[in-house]
Amino acid sequence: MAAEENGEGIGRIRMRRIPDATADSLQAFVQEAVAPGSRLHTDGLLSYDRLEKHGYRHRITFLKGRKESASELLPRVHRVVSLLKRWLLGTHQGAVSRAHLDYYLDEFTFRFNRRTSRHRGKLFYRLVQQAVAVDPAPYASLVKHVRSGKRRRRHHKI
Prior knowledge:
Layout: E1 2-6, E2 9-14, H1 23-33, E3 39-42, E4 57-60, H2 70-73, H3 75-92, H4 101-113, H5 122-133, H6 139-142
Parallel strand pairs: 3-4
Antiparallel strand pairs: 1-2
């Protein structure tokens, strides 16, 4: 995830599920989510070592050996992740499906980035506007990467 610095607060965010923490996976996310020339603040993970080669300014905060916690050293991303967890538990009541994780992240990002909008009523309007502008996606195509298997029915006695 990426969180924009806005003074002491958080500006816009970007989230994406990536397959692993390799340099290739992280670089692909960064290039998709962050404008070249931006300054990135990361932990000391070696997978970030190519950022400067791709036109990003890079500030590293090594977490190991520091008295401060990771949430104190990189507060924005940790605050957003905490809010995401709370939102998932509160909204979906623990029924979060791995198959739909990308959609949960997209929805949370959409809502978070519009949290300070002066025209909150436009949130629904923009959602409907986007829904009619994009071709429909059948459910089967949304979850085609999930293995299909027969579900066992559970019988409950009352």
